[in-house]
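Following the same procedure, sequence and fold were stored together, as reproduced here:

>
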Amino acid sequence: MQSETADTPPPMAPAEPDRAADANATGRRIKPWHSLWLLLMLGWTVSAADRSVTGPVVTWMINNNVGFLADADRPYALGGLIGGLFFAGYMLTQFPGGYLGDRYGHRTLIVVSLVWAGIATLVTGIVGGLVTFIVVRVVTGLGEGAYYSNDRTVITETTPERERSLGLGVVITGLALGITIATVFTPNFIDLGKLWLPDVDAWRMTFYILGTATLLAAAALAWRFRKDLNARVVGRATLHLAGYSAVSLALIMAVYLLGTRAGLSDLWIAVLEVVLAVGLVLFTLARKGEELGPVLKNRSLFLIYLSYIAVLWNLWFFSFWSVSIVAGAAHSSFASAALTAGFNAGAGILGFPAGGWLSDLAVRRGWGRKPMLLSFTGVQAVLTVVFAWYLAAAGKPSLLVMGVLLFTASLFFNALQPIGHALTAELAPPRLRGSAFGMQNLIGETGAVLSPAVGGVLRDQTGGWTAAVWLDAAIIIVGFCLLIPVRDPRRGGTPT
């Protein structure tokens, strides 16, 4: 990793002016933090679309026998590995992104992350060849990994406690919007590409459109944060993040290339990428264990971190493969499957803000956040089991029934996430919230790295998606069990 002791850290970015205005805004209907929520939600929308579009594009390539998947012996396993490698990059900058946000300013890292992601997404549409495509997608993930922990911290700092969970839920609604856009509109983006590009290259238009949108969102947030941005600090933060990313990219690609040359399966390569990530985490902890002790040695926090493996597994298993799951089960067209799968992603548009509002209501009523978090996780587990059973029992599953089940399970799944984020914010010391959110998503992204690859391997081996969905349900149940011992600071005292 890049050394941080060679020079004196630059000063932190000044406090967000919205915070000063908050005290004088109590009489207004639209508060300063509300407009901030909308801009941060825009950032989530474009970055989520950038990362989730790979799945529909890979499905289109497989269905049309084009691109670098045309001659693959196990196309679903390879496609899943591509998704997993993206999340290996995304995973490895979760903690560094939060740590650098604590050091250079969280608003600075948000802008750096979006500019990075926009440029890398545009480049994805230019490159050719499997290895080059993977490299650029990993680089995209490395940049996007810095957004989550800094976004969560800015909302926590600028939003009054009575609306904190609502704000976390409203903003992350952008994740659902972005996934929905990537899932539902990829066929339209590809059709548009056919007007300007050869049919075999039409998929590239998707990345041109989304990369441009991401850069526009970055410009909007940079304008909002203009009083907090300093060119020198932005440059230093970018170089520092690039230092982490260069090491991570080299290691990720080394594991991939050596594993491929050694004849390892795509699943084993994905597992080794997770082992690599764990090794880098342990290295970081060895260097900064004392400084970060409050967010690493807190048992309740660590159990939440582990439970997020199930959250991220479910999120990116369905985000990556839902179009293929629906198309394969119902034998429908790519466009019809994409529209039905969109119910899974679209549920977050309701679920995220509803979960945040209900979480704040629970706190005001003195119930605490944990009971609602457990309840929603339990309902999601039951509905996922029902979906797996329906795929196994129905001879030809109905698009309508699959859409309803996907929507309902996803509604509870998305609602539970802002509750968990708010609980993490309450358990972590304010000065280390960026690091806590980074560690939460870093550990959770283990699920995102493995789920596309494991799902693809099971699809190739079994010829269907039922086994992969049953596995997803089992992992959700394990996540539920991990949350049971967590102490709610509002109901059981200060957790340890």
In short: Residues 1-27 have pLDDT under 50 and may be disordered. DSSP finds 20 helices and no strands in the chain. Residues 254 and 260 are 10 Å apart (CA to CA). The two ends are 30 Å apart (CA to CA).
